[in-house]
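tl;dr need the bound structure. longer version: we got a ligand (zinc ion) that a collaborator sent over and nobodys looked at where it sits. i said id run it. heres the input, straight from their email, havent touched it
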Amino acid sequence: MKKRSIHATNFRKVLELFRDERGQEAEKLLKIIQEDYLELYNENKELRSQIKEVADILDLAECMEFDGQKYWIDEETEKTGPYCQVCYDKDGVLIRLQEREKHWECYSCENLFVKIPTGNIIHKSRPKKESKPPLRLFS
Ligand SMILES: [Zn+2]
């Protein structure tokens, strides 16, 4: 079967063929137009699903949180993750990290993400604030 292109002029041609009483040729052409239509219909459907896919990714991107090294998905109902930053930024895929004692590990790219010390430890390492003497209102 030779490759057809969709021509709007085919509609006019059908009309002309009918007028010339070349009904059989007109029918053949109508069949071609119908096939073209189905082809367009399927292409349209495919494009629509691609658009939906992109929209879903954009929705997801809105829920993504970056903690400085890993991604989390923070939806209204729950927070999931963490996910590998390298895999997501490179290939756009979400790979859930495997938790180890002191780090998170990506089984796909094999990157390691060191666990950030908890707030208490950070707090301890901070220089002690000098306590100011209380303000004297009356002397
Ligand atoms: Zn990875």
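gonna send this back to them w/ a short note. The first strand starts at residue 64 and ends at 66.
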